[in-house]
Amino acid sequence: MDGTKVCSPKRIAFWVSSVESGGDEQIRGRFLMYNVKSDPARRNEILAHMQEQDAGIVQVPSDYELETMVCQALTYDLKQKLFRVVIPFAGRIRFEGDPRAYGLFSDMIKASSVFRDQKRDKDEAGSLVATEEDFDNACQLYRDFGGHDRDKFEGTELKVLNAILVRGTATQADIQEETGLSSGRVSDVLNGRGRDGHGLIHKCKHLVVMEGRPKKYKLMEDFYPSGDVEIKLDAIT
Length: 237
What we know:
Strand order of the largest sheet: 6-8-7
Number of domains: 2
Shape: extended
Largest sheet: 3 strands, antiparallel
Order of helices and strands: EHEHHEEHEHHEHHHEEE
Number of strands: 9
Strand content: 5-15%
Helix content: 40-55%
Low-confidence stretches: none
């Protein structure tokens, strides 16, 4: 069978879901990552759903299934079209972050406009004109994701960091006691899984390692577990 050569658009952005988004700095800088639930209740819910499908049980779709089907239909419809979106108020956006992060935020504004293309005006060139509602939608989504920062922390990392905050100065044993995580898991989170540069001691610039037996960890005073996302729209002058 002959292969097919395909090309992806330049500077394409990927949305990734995972249980623990432990990608390296280069990955975190280019991907918008979303952590999904993996607790026992969620696993049991998924297992029950799979078993009902296997058993051929016919059910009225639940609310979240209906929402999923609606989103699938919307996405299918949008994939049949091509859009260009302009943001007339772009010069009024005050954004704290690197250019790559702004690029993703800009795409969120445009995506909001595209999903409402039937309600958006078009300019003389046929481009959709984004509105301040699209800006507000993008802000909410961006904040829900915790911003786009190559130092973003996933759930287990936040547990460890919060444990250190609670203790002030914490040993690995203290962190285990606070989080309920195993010794090996805490070690992986702090040091990385056998690879230099992938644990909290490399990833979190506010984490201080106090050498000794045992090692102790503390966080600088200016550390905040969830960094503030500063985005605003200047008033029209």
